[in-house]
Write a structure and sequence with these properties.
678 residues, alpha/beta, Rossmann fold, eight-stranded mixed beta sheet, five-stranded parallel beta sheet, 15% strand
């Protein structure tokens, strides 16, 4: 049923379809002609001068595109996160050079820095420059946060810190497919303190995952400097979670950055997660770091003297120069950020950078945005080289065939007999175990210290160690790790995470929220190929009292229904097996809700079991039908047994339908209202 007229509903759907049709990159498959920028991390000990010049030339190209895009935005009075976007470009360009989209992937935690992401992809040819300059934040193709476009990351960014555990899941799944896999996760220096991020670092350690975090340690957050907002050094806390810190001076020193990447890759191949951390430059016994040093380092003496003189700051003032510079290459904002992190007059936070009131040509003409002779030669050479043809494909559509059980495998299944009282968990346990036995290398399990209660233990015993991870009570991170697993391969696979339903409603909900902003390449926002196994739904009284109550499980599932392929609420153990079998057999996002209590195994009017191992799942199953019934009872899940008793007490005046889940068949409710008038 809908609160909207069918006409309004269709009109909106037509508009959605037209928006996608009018887009350039939202397609099932997109082929790009790309500059041949490839660096084999495993086989290259150090970068030569030509490689360095090429990377820096492309950095400048991407920075120019970013500046022009924000200048275009300024014409309509808008701004964006230009500062962080420019800062992202140097390390992201190296990541793109090393990425093959098979055994190496990347993502971006600080997704608001997206202009640097889109501009880097445009510089390489994955997307066109004009779209980034004139469509950024003004259309669906190039939105305001990191979203999946050709050559990009599948992991659409959202709240800070969220991508840390998601990247861990992606690395876990990729390693199972190829032991040479590696994931690089770019991150800011604010989101690391979020609970889900700390849990994600822990997951990377526990799983011995091939994952490297590259931190933009620019010292600036949204409202002020790190020092004035969260004056904490990330290193000891991240290291305490089990992630090795690889220090270097600066991400804008290309040769040094490559050495850090090389070391991180070698550690990843040994199963150790790392964080590349730029410490920046400060005075030492051998060198004084002041504004004179800064001017000489970048060849911007006149600009540095102008801004220090304007603000009454001595050129001899000793400073910390971050190793990841906010607004990098945009000289005046970059220098204002240096003043800010050093608590000096004239400091400005350019987290939300912009081009409003600024001259685009003047900015683009500065020395840091101008290629030198070697860089220009390298740029001309790679631009004139034969392009590489790269095809980016969308993920499979929801409902695509996934992991199935054949007739022989189903014949081995033994389920509780009709009329017996037992927990529905017995059926879901049998379902997961059967699928894991049939497809051990394609089944991935994320646990929260509850396998004995959620009944995933038998399935876990069937799969390789590297295909499962135990995250104790880190429920939020567990769901996000499962989301990352879904992004690790195009092959059919089951990714299941289980915990008590009460935790899904509370701390773990972020893993479901992520589905709201995961855009497939074809433009459809949809849930990921994950089974969210919600155990102990309902008011589970007893030892756990209210901590075990799950009273919102139905409304929770309905809230995410636009992103879910199917929501399952089985009524008994046999129905639970059918639900799990179906969820595993279909690609897409699924929620399986299992009650704890012992329930009557349902039977039809002839006493036969209502569900069998080979039954096809259906949203609604008739339980009791009477010729003169004027009333219908729709029973969701565990209430079916009660509904059956009620029908018997009503003496044949009511029919009973078991609602096994959602969505309901088209027209079902309309037919019910038409048929029953009691």
């Amino acid at each position: 049923m809908s609160n909207y007229s069918q006409g309004a509903w269709k009109a909106q759907q037509d508009r959605n379809d037209q928006l996608i049709a009018d887009s350039k990159f939202m397609r099932p498959s997109v082929t790009s002609q790309v500059l041949p920028l490839n660096i084999d991390i495993a086989g290259t000990d150090a970068l030569d001068e030509k490689q360095i010049a090429t990377l820096q030339a492309l950095e400048i190209e991407a920075a120019q595109i970013s500046i022009s895009s924000l200048a275009s935005l300024a014409t309509i009075g808008e701004l964006d996160h230009l500062g962080g976007g420019l800062d992202l470009i140097p390390s992201l360009m190296l990541t793109l050079a090393a990425t093959d989209y098979e055994k190496m992937q990347y993502t971006i935690e600080n997704a608001h820095a997206s202009i640097g992401y889109y501009s880097s992809l445009a510089a390489l040819g994955y997307v066109d420059r004009d779209s980034v300059v004139h469509k950024f934040r003004r259309g669906l193709d190039i939105p305001g946060h990191v979203s999946w476009v050709p050559g990009g990351t599948q992991l659409n960014g959202g709240r800070l810190g969220v991508m840390i555990p998601v990247a861990a899941g992606q690395a876990m799944g990729m390693r199972a497919r190829d032991p040479q896999s590696w994931v690089v996760c770019h991150c800011g220096d604010a989101g690391w303190i979020a609970g889900q991020a700390l849990n994600g670092f822990n997951a990377a350690d526990i799983g011995n995952l091939p994952l490297t975090f590259v931190m933009q340690r620019n010292g600036i957050q949204l409202s002020d400097s790190n020092k004035n907002v969260m004056d904490k050094d990330p290193r000891p806390m991240v290291e305490a979670m089990g992630v090795e810190i690889i220090e270097l001076n600066a991400l804008f020193d290309t040769a040094e950055m490559y050495k850090a990447y090389k070391h991180a890759h070698s550690r990843a191949m040994e199963g150790r997660p790392t964080m590349i951390f730029p410490t920046g430059y400060s005075s030492s016994d051998s060198e004084k770091v002041d504004f004179n040093w800064l001017a000489n380092r970048f060849g911007i003496g006149a600009e540095v003297e102008a801004i220090t003189g304007k603000n009454g700051v001595s050129m001899d003032q000793e400073i910390w120069v971050p190793g990841s510079l906010m607004s990098y290459r945009d000289i005046v904002p970059m220098l204002e950020c240096v003043l800010l992190v050093n608590d000096l007059p004239g400091g400005v936070d350019h987290h939300d950078g912009h081009m409003k009131g600024r001259d685009e040509a003047e900015v683009l003409g500065n020395v840091m945005l101008t290629r030198d002779e070697a860089q220009q030669a390298a740029f001309d050479e790679i631009s004139g080289a034969a392009k590489a043809e790269v095809t980016t494909n969308a993920r499979p559509a929801p409902g695509t065939a996934n992991l199935t059980l054949n007739a022989e495998q189903l014949a081995e299944i033994s389920l509780p007999e009709a009329g017996k009282k037992t927990s529905a968990r017995a059926g879901s346990e049998a379902g997961y175990a059967a699928v894991a036995k049939a497809h051990p290398n394609d089944t991935f399990i994320v646990s929260c210290d509850l396998n004995p209660s959620t009944k995933l233990g038998k399935a876990a015993a069937q799969v390789p160690t590297q295909n499962q991870i135990e995250l104790s009570i880190e429920e939020q991170a567990a769901l996000l790790v499962a989301d990352g697993l879904a992004m690790s391969s195009y092959k059919p696979q089951v990714n299941v995470v289980s915990t008590f339903s009460a935790f899904f409603e509370g701390i773990a909900r972020e893993g479901l929220e992520l589905w709201r902003y995961q855009r497939n390449l074809n433009g459809v926002n949809e849930g990921l190929n994950v089974i969210m196994h919600m155990s102990h739904v309902g008011a589970c009284t007893g030892r756990d009292h209210f901590s075990g109550w799950s009273l919102d499980w139905v409304t929770l599932a309905i809230g995410y229904l636009p992103y879910v392929d199917r929501f399952y609420a089985p009524a008994d153990a046999r129905g639970a097996f059918v639900a799990v079998k179906d969820a595993c057999a279909r690609y897409g996002a699924h929620i399986v809700a299992i009650p704890r209590d012992n329930l009557l195994v349902l039977s039809d009017e002839d006493g036969n079991a209502l569900y069998n191992p080979d039954s096809e799942w259906e949203a609604v199953t008739p339980l009791r039908k009477h010729d003169r019934a004027k009333t219908a009872i729709l029973a969701l899940g565990a209430t079916a047994g009660i509904a059956q008793d009620a029908a018997e007490q009503l003496g044949g005046s009511a029919d009973v339908y078991v609602v096994n889940g959602l969505p309901l068949p088209d027209g079902f409710l309309a037919d019910i209202f038409e048929k029953y008038d009691g």
